[in-house]
Design brief:
single chain; 174 residues; mainly alpha; 5 helices; 79% helix
Length: 174
């Protein structure tokens, strides 16, 4: 009997190579497996195996070939589209993660600036009014950075949730 290929089989065969929870590796698997093609019938039975395979090919040509071909013509472009969208989604997630890291770095620099301002005020004895103005400007800038960091974080969480729901809905259809 011919083994029917499917994503689960493909994943099981490559589990030792690819991490189970690594989304990038799943995207690589998806990019490799999106094309669905009919496979020829074979038989491992000695002597009569060739006859069995020939009969099954002939029966398939009569009973199902044109029906299956139409389904494949619909499924293959859909699979390619899903693989492409997942690759784009992965690129966007990477971009958002880099933006988040940049914003976190900016917040760290802002905190260092605030500390340096405190030292400057102490060392130079700036007036309380000047100090209050500087603190107000720093707080406004810090709040802007905090808001921007929150927005990027929400985008990351939303995309991750969309990816998880897309992964689970795609997997359940198979």
């Amino acid at each position: 009997m011919q083994k029917k290929p499917n994503m689960q089989t493909y994943e099981d065969e490559h589990r030792s190579t690819y991490g189970h929870d690594d989304k990038k590796e799943y995207i690589i698997l998806l990019e490799r497996a999106w094309r669905v093609e009919p496979r020829p019938f074979t038989s491992d039975k000695p002597i009569i195996g060739a006859l069995i395979a020939a009969f099954r090919r002939a029966w398939n040509n009569i009973a199902a070939r044109w029906y299956v071909q139409g389904l494949l013509e619909q499924q293959v472009p859909f699979n390619h589209l899903v693989a492409s969208v997942m690759a784009i989604h992965d690129q966007q997630m990477g971009s958002l993660e880099r933006q988040l890291a940049d914003l976190a770095h900016q917040l760290s620099i802002q905190a260092q600036c605030t500390n340096l301002q405190g030292e400057l005020i102490y060392d130079r004895g700036l007036s309380i009014g000047t100090l209050a103005e500087e603190i107000a400007r720093s707080n406004v800038h810090l709040q802007e950075l905090h808001d921007e960091l929150g927005a990027v974080s929400e985008q990351l969480q939303q995309r991750a949730a969309e990816g998880m729901s897309s992964d689970s809905s795609t997997g359940s259809d198979e």
